[in-house]
Amino acid sequence: MTDNIIFQKDGPIALFVDKILREAVALHASDIHFEIFDEKFVVRYRIDGELTTLDDCDCELARPVFSRLKVLASLNISETRLPQDGSIAYPLGEGEIEFRISCLPTQFGESVVLRILNNDAEFFALDELMRDDVPLKNFLKNITEKSGLTLFVGPTGCGKSTTLYSVLREIKSDEIKILTCEDPVEQRIDGLSQSSINSDIGFSFSNALRAFLRHDPDVIFVGEIRDRETADLAIRAAITGHCVLSTLHANGTGSAIPRLLDLGIDRTMIAEALLCVVYQQLEKIDPGQTPAHTGPGRRAKYDALFVDDALRSAIKNNEWLDKFSRA
């Protein structure tokens, strides 16, 4: 199979890739996994949090399919030894669907994963998402009234982005300036200044945060706190009068403090900045139920920890572990 076939828009490889992408979108998949193993080439969709495997494909398809995907993402098709990341804007119907692509070298070849980013996806109001959690819903609706840091934690793919975009839509107004740094921008929202992180040119979350503080924002959304520098800047922004929203890898509300401490943040600064930790997970719903949900068969479930004066004092005095264990 020649390399030229990957550039043919109506060739068999292009048609195969087109079929996979369209089918994944139609099935409401969140990710597409293209994987090569010892003697088989596998395509899997992640639907409602679970992977569904298609029939094994011809191993000879793997290389041209990977190359075709790289062509669509303007990546280097000859580079197979190093990871590559990019994005694909793919025409579908009258619009287009965005995919985030990640290529990873493995023992038997490359592994390619596409995350489906639908900018035209249905969104939900906080009243729909949090109909059973009135205190949290009311807090998030009025979050711009006070400065501080609100963290959203939970497993990958649990719908944190869906909830955060709902929060941003709820609080946006002509009276406040909202800046976001995301990796990448998953949904475009009118009235927000949204920036995409680009590691290739050194535009990181921490670099974006530094620039944001010179643009007089009221609300700052940081897609993810990954390192000490970003955590430190987010904390300092929260302490100096900004409403800061972000996500953090933690497996519960009680895990946020030790995670920030592990990143090297002083507990006194954490106590001064932190307003709330929201843990989100997804639960399956019966097909006959119709509440708002973040996927065809799941809905969000929340657990929130509000930092009051007693807990703030406990964090400062290094007594937070007992408070969190009972929260």
Q: Note the beta-strand portion.
A: 25-35%
CATH domain fold name of the largest domain: Rossmann fold
Order of helices and strands: HEEEHEEEHHEHEEHEHEHHEEHH
* Total count of domains: 2
Distance between the termini: 61 Å
CATH H-level superfamily title of the largest domain: P-loop containing nucleotide triphosphate hydrolases
Write out the strand line-up for the largest beta sheet, numbering strands in chain order.
Answer: 9-8-10-11-7-12-13
What's the total helix number? 11
Instruction: Just name the CATH architecture of the largest domain.
Output: 3-Layer(aba) Sandwich
Report the biggest beta sheet as strand number plus sense, adding barrel if it closes.
Answer: 7 strands, mixed
Q: pLDDT under 50 segments (min length 5)?
A: none
Classification by helices and strands:
alpha/beta
The radius of gyration computed from the alpha-carbon positions, rounded to a whole number of angstroms, is: 22 Å
Oligomer: single chain
- What share of residues is helical? 25-40%
Q: Could you report the average pLDDT, rounded to the nearest whole number?
A: 87
- The number of strands is 13
CATH class of the largest domain: Alpha Beta
Morphology call: elongated
